[in-house]
Design a protein that fits this description.
Helix 2 runs parallel beside helix 5, helix 3 runs antiparallel to helix 4 and helix 9 packs across helix 12. Strands 1-7-6-5-2-3-4 form a seven-stranded mixed sheet. The chain is α/β, with parallel strands linked by helices and 289 residues long. It folds into two domains: 210 residues, 3-Layer(aba) Sandwich (Rossmann fold); 64 residues, Orthogonal Bundle (DNA polymerase, domain 1).
Length: 289
Amino acid sequence: MGCNLRDLANAEDINLAELKGKRVGIDAFLTAFQFLTTIRDRSPTGDGGPLRDSKGRVVAHLMGMLTRTTTMLSLGIQPVFIFDGPAPELKADELAARRERRLEAEAAHKQALEDGDYQTAQKMAQRIVHYSPEMVEDTKQMLDLLGVRWVDAAAEGEGQAAVMAVKGQLDVVATQDWDALLYGSPILVRNLMSDGSKRHGRTVRAQKIILSEMLAEHELSREQLVDLAIMIGTDFHPGLKGIGPKTGIKLIKSLGTIEAICEEKGKQLPERLDEIREIFLNHPCNAVA
């Protein structure tokens, strides 16, 4: 799920009330996956799959989306759901790897059910959820009935949202994907609907990251931030071996670019480097009314 910039971000806890009246662009696919993996069959002998209706149709995404959307509306937040468009060709290797992991999880899930190992089956079930085109259309139809805006992205959903925010069409981008900052989102909100809830034994709150402040704190340009992310690893390139966030930021601040770093360290330049940069720095964006 993109590049992890957690170590660079000075995240500020916020109250949801601060988002009242704000147009919040929401990564629809990531949100749906959250519900498909959490609203599921947890019975002792259940298969761990997402919640279904009496006809066997998956409805976990609709249940979760409905609750979250109505909660936001009640708080005066103006959600705008952004749906992924066609993935960039450069993401093909990452998508292929994800498909392979899913096939492995499906095989493990099937075997666990045959063995009566429901604990393992439920664990594997979270790894095989699929947000199908039919589910996407059902979600859009529900949002239409609620009078809530949605947008089809030209490519990556968080990229579309970031460009819309830069254009002043959104006030905030809400996603767990740090790549929104690489795409230029001025304000990123993570853990959108968390207001002091407990998760894995710790308190989780909505957090705001301001891109300009992060760049100023680390004395980086946005172009250097993108180069840093490419070195760490993104959906479009696995990164340079042996370079993590702490080492990467020292190198980028002292040498300036990936080209200079690779020359200094004797490393091979990432393939199609300029194309990867272009995806982040000039992401395609569908026009919206």
